[in-house]
Amino acid sequence: MLPLRRTSLLIHRLPLARFSSNARENVNQSATQHDSDTHFGFQTVKESDKWKKVHKVFEEVAASYDLMNDAMSMGIHRVWKDIFMERLSPVGNGIRLLDMAGGTGDIAFRYMKYLQKQTAPDRKPSHVTVCDINQNMLDVGQQRWEKLNLPTAGDTIEWVCADAEKLPFEDSTFSVYTIAFGIRNCTHIDKVLSEAHRVLKPGGRFMCLEFSHVNNEYLKWVYDQYSFQVIPPMGQILANQWQPYQYLVESIRKFPQQNEFKTMIQNAGFKCVEYENLTFGVVAIHSGFKL
């Protein structure tokens, strides 16, 4: 493992354990008070059980997460994330980015690389907080960051274990909130969106990259066949895990369609909300502003 750069990395070792415990307690207490039915893939489960099941899924796949992303999408997920960063185009000085469900660091690392292309001599350092409810995913991300050993020009990154439905941050803290391939795994999407709105500064931007719905019926049939017949067996072969990838393809089908999700973002208080389909709607980028 390469040595850490002195100013480029802030690892919250002790707070991580605290946030991990608090996140679980908060979810558990809330679910116990209002223990309604929800979905876990195609299964109907109690809300108090869903977070445990989702947490277990990502504990099991953390080590093979990036390998499986490449295999399942044939590398296209990298293009989607690059486009996501291009659409974000984070310019300005002293930007504070919260990358929620950022686990293994793909969005955060792209952001840090993007910052290095901004060569203005008076540019103020920016900061990224990678936040995830699953400590195993964060551990993988920290290890990847250390191995990358990127120059940072004073920009900093930290890793915080916390629940997207109850963030441990003050109001109006961040300039940008990103969440990529994570929001569909949350029990209460409306609470996630509300928290995103709360922690953003006025003028801040919400950006979400998520699997969505293919509208063309022929392409949808092809996509469904690949999803259900290829991805779970691939998970078994490459990661010795079938069930997590069965859940993956099922959870995509349960996620709201593009216009429905757009309305949810608007209901959370965001303005100028719009979305862009990529790869015929296999994924979509949703964007909104806190005005």
Alpha-beta content class: alpha/beta
Number of DSSP helical runs? 11
Number of strand elements: 10
- Helix content range of the residues, please? 40-55%
Which quaternary structure do these chains form? single chain
Whole-number radius of gyration? 18 Å
Beta strand %: 15-25%
Strand order of the largest sheet: 1-6-5-4-7-8-10-9
Quote the average pLDDT. Answer: 83
Calculate the terminal CA-CA distance, rounded to whole Å. 43 Å
Shape: globular
H/E element sequence: EHEEHHHEHEHEEHEHHHHEE
Instruction: Please give the largest β-sheet.
Output: 8 strands, mixed
Topology overview:
Blueprint: E1 9-11, H1 13-33, E2 37-40, E3 43-46, H2 47-61, H3 65-73, H4 76-88, E4 96-100, H5 106-116, E5 127-132, H6 135-148, E6 156-161, E7 174-180, H7 189-199, E8 200-211, H8 217-229, H9 231-239, H10 243-254, H11 258-267, E9 271-278, E10 283-289
Parallel strand pairs: 1-6, 4-5, 4-7, 5-6, 7-8
Antiparallel strand pairs: 2-3, 8-10, 9-10
Helix pairs in contact: 1-2, 3-9, 9-10
Account of the protein in words:
The chain is 47% helix and 21% strand. α1 (13-33) packs antiparallel against α2 (47-61) and α3 packs antiparallel against α9 (231-239). It has 11 helices and 10 strands. The longest helix is centred in the first third of the chain and has 21 residues, at 13-33. The chain is globular and about 55 Å long. β4 (96-100), α5 (106-116) and β5 (127-132) form a beta-alpha-beta unit. It is of the alpha/beta class and 291 residues long. An 8-stranded mixed sheet has the order 1-6-5-4-7-8-10-9, with helices on both faces. A two-stranded antiparallel ribbon has the order 2-3.
